[in-house]
Amino acid sequence: MQVSELKQKFFEFFGEGEVSVYFAPGRVNLIGEHTDYNAGFVFPCALSFGIYCLVRKTDLKVFRFRDIKVPNAFDIALEDLSKPVGKEWVNYPIGVIAQFIKNGMPPKSGLDVMFAGFVPMGAGLSSSAAVEVVTGTAFSDIFGYEVSKKDIALYGQRAEHEYAGVKCGIMDQFISAHGAKDHATFLNCDTLEYELVPVKLDGAKIVISNTNSPHKLESSAYNERVAQCNAAVEAIKPYKNINKLGEISWEEFLKVEDKIADPIARKRARHVVSEIKRTTDAVAALKAGDIAKFGLLMNGSHDSLRDDYDVTGLELDTMVNEGRKIEGVIGTRMTGGGFGGCTVSIVKDEAVDTFIAQVGANYEKVTGLKPLFYVAEIGDGGHKVE
Ligand code: GLA
Fold first, then answer.
1. Cβ partners under 8 Å of residue 71, min gap 6
2. Which of 161, 277, 159 is nearest to 226 (CA)?
3. What's the DSSP call for residue 378?
4. CA 29 / ligand 1 centre spacing (Å)
5. Which ranges of the chain have pLDDT less than 50?
6. pLDDT for res 216
7. How far is the CA of 248 from the centre of ligand 1 (A)?
8. What is the position in ligand 1's atom list of the atom closest to the CA of 124?
9. Is 188 within the bounds of a domain?
10. 259 vs 254, 268, 291, CA distance in Å?
11. Residue 58: inside a domain
C-alpha cells in the first residue's frame, strides 16, 4: 500500500487535514538466538516491510487509536493512557506511551492515531516490536521530545515486559529502531554497543520461510527459558562469579558445565554459550566474505535450538530439513523466538525458485500447512516518512 492510500484511510477515520507518517520495520535475525536476555550477541537486520503509524494532534482530551486491519477501535482519555486494556492490541502503543509519561514526557494534546501493519503477526518477525518502535518514534517527534533511538527501544522492551507479560530481550526493539539498509547489526546486548556490518552475499539471497504456524505458547515457554538460564547462572556462580551466561566463554563453560546439576538448565546454558560463540564467529566469517562458513554456523544454530534449547518443533524442523536437501542452500535455521514462526535461509540466486517450489511442496506434504516465502530486502530502522 502506498503512503497516499494510507493517508486516505486516515482521512476516512478522522477527516481530512494534516497528518504525519512514521514507519518502523520488522526484523529477521541472521544468527544469535535467545542470547539477548543473556547479555550475549545478536546479528539481526531490519526488513523493508514494517508498521506505519499516522498521527495528528487534536483539541480533544483523548487518543483515538485505529488499525486498518483490526476492527477493535479504542478512544482513551489522556489520564488513562497508562492503563492496560484487557488483552487488546492497543496495549502495545499504550505500554510505550506509559514509559514516556513515567519519564516526564506526557502527551501535550489529544491525538488521532492509525496503525497499518505489513508484518505477518505471530510469524516471529517482530510485528509487536515494530508497533512499539513506531509508537515511540511518532510520540517523541509529534510532541517534540528528544529521545534517543536506544531509549525508544528500551521503552518498547519495557512495554513488552509490563503490558504483554513477555520477559523479552532487547534485540527486536533495538533493531527496529537502529536498522540500516543492506546492513545487519552486530549488537552487544550487555552494553548496547553495536556495529553495522554490510550484508554482502555475493550471488545469494536471504529467504524467509513462514511456516504459517503462529508461535504457540510463546510467552509462557519463553519466560520459562529465561528462568532456566537464570537457574544455570546460579549453578555456575560458586565456581565462576557471573550474573549472566554471556559472561562466560565457551572454553570456561566446558570446565563448569557438569556443575549444573539440572540437565535441562545445563542444556539451555549450553545452547546460549555456544550460540554466542557461533554469532561472533559468523560475523567474522561474513566480514571475511566466507559465506559458506556463515551458513554452517547458521545450521549449527538451528541444531542447537532444536536439541538443547527445545524451541523448534515439527514445522520449523521440517522447513529446515527440506531446505537442507536443496542444492544451493548455504545455511538455514529458525529465526526469532521459535515454536513456529519463520526460518531464515541463505540461498544461491539460481536456487531460489527451486527452493521456494520444492520446500513449499514438501513442507505442505508433511505438515498440511501452506507456507509463505519472502526474499528479504534489508531496510532502515524507525523514522518519519513525511
Ligand atoms: C523474541 C524476543 C527477543 C529474542 C528472541 C530470541 O523475538 O522478543 O528478545 O529473545 O525471541 O532470540
1. none
2. 161
3. B
4. 9
5. none
6. 62
7. 20
8. 7
9. yes
10. 10, 14, 36
11. yes
> d(Cα 81, Cα 94) in Å, to the nearest integer?
6
What pTM was computed for the model? 0.97
Q: What is the CATH number of the domain that holds 80?
A: 3.30.230.10
Residue 224 resides in a domain: no
pLDDT at 231: 98
Ligand 1 mean position to 169 CA, how many Å? 6
Nearest CA to ligand 1 atom 8: 168
| 240-258 pLDDT per residue, tens | 999 999 999 999 999 999 9
**CA-to-CA distance for 218 and 211, rounded, in angstroms?**
15
Q: Strands of 20-29's sheet, edge to edge?
A: 74-77, 62-67, 110-117, 44-58, 20-29, 383-384
What does the DSSP assignment read for 50-72?
Answer: EEEEEEEEESSSEEEEEESS---
Set of cell numbers at residue 203: 550471488
Nearest CA to ligand 1 atom 9: 169
Nearest atom in ligand 1 to 29's CA: 12
One-character DSSP codes across 109-128? SEEEEEEEE-S-TTSSS-HH
Identify the residues whose C-beta falls under 6 Å from ligand 1.
Answer: 33-34, 36-37, 168-169, 171-172, 336-337
Burial of residue 162 (CB within 10 Å: 0-12, 13-18, 19+) is: middle
Do the Cβ atoms of 196 and 282 come closer than 8 Å?
Answer: no
Residue in 172, 262, 281, 308 annotated catalytic: 172
**pLDDT number for residue 215:** 67
Task: Verify whether residue 182 is a known catalytic residue.
Answer: no
Q: Count CA atoms within 13 Å of residue 62 on its CB side.
A: 9
How many separate domains does the chain show? 1
Pocket mutation for ligand 1, best pick of 28, 131, 171 (most atoms within 8 Å of C-beta): 171
Q: What domain range is 44 assigned to?
A: 3-198+380-384
Asked if residue 128 is part of any domain, the answer here is yes
Helices (H), the chain: 3-14, 91-102, 127-142, 149-159, 171-178, 218-236, 250-256, 263-287, 291-307, 314-324, 352-367
